[in-house]
Amino acid sequence: MAKGTSPNQLGxxxxxFAPSSGTRDDRPKLQKPPRLTTIxxxxxxxxxxxxxxxxxxxxxxxxVDLRIGRMYPRAxxxxxxxxxxxxxxxxxxxxxxxxxxxxxxxRTELHKVIDNDRLKRAEHAEAWTRYLEQVAKLLAERxxxxxxxxxxxxxxxxxxxxxxVCKCHHHRDCHRxxxxxxxxxxxxxxxxxxxxxxxxxxxxxxxxxxxxxxxxLLKDDDKRIGRALRGA
Length: 232
Description:
Blueprint: H1 7-10, E1 17-19, E2 28-30, E3 38-43, H2 48-58, E4 62-65, H3 80-89, E5 93-96, H4 104-114, H5 121-141, H6 150-155, E6 161-166, H7 176-186, E7 191-194, H8 214-220, H9 222-229
Parallel strand pairs: 3-6, 3-7, 4-5, 4-6
Antiparallel strand pairs: 1-2
Helix pairs in contact: 4-5, 5-9
């Protein structure tokens, strides 16, 4: 994505296009939203009181649900209908966004590897890296940042702070790390903050898998990620 690349060449940008400032290769970015400044990454795998305490203290105005399945036996309040009602009671908006969800096929392919303890550490790491790339490509194929898409409407909407929510405990154990990293990189003026109870990240659920986080993937592998973002 060299300097001078047009919105049509990128494929995912159709409006609000502006050159970035201060990036290491002047890659283009979408214009700074008029209101949104912060996206929080948070798990719903906690009690309702604890969850909405985090939302209140962080000034979150909208919860964006990234889960494929919205039935969650470990926290019944987090089932889709109950979460919608709970958000209403606490004065927070709620919106599930299909454009930001991985497919079940991608999840199944990943877990065939990472749930197999007989495979080597390197094979687990390779499966996770491949999954991140596939999620990034899927988002690009959906043109998730294009004008008129739900994500674009959220970014350029009324809220100053939103929370992107999935059931995975740790940000880097979850596809929301891909979603938020791509938005932060390609939309001007957005900061991503990982949000945890008491400010302490939980123990990683599958630490041997996560040898490369999405930040290093996007930074160190521009050509492959660039192709994925263009949907090539």
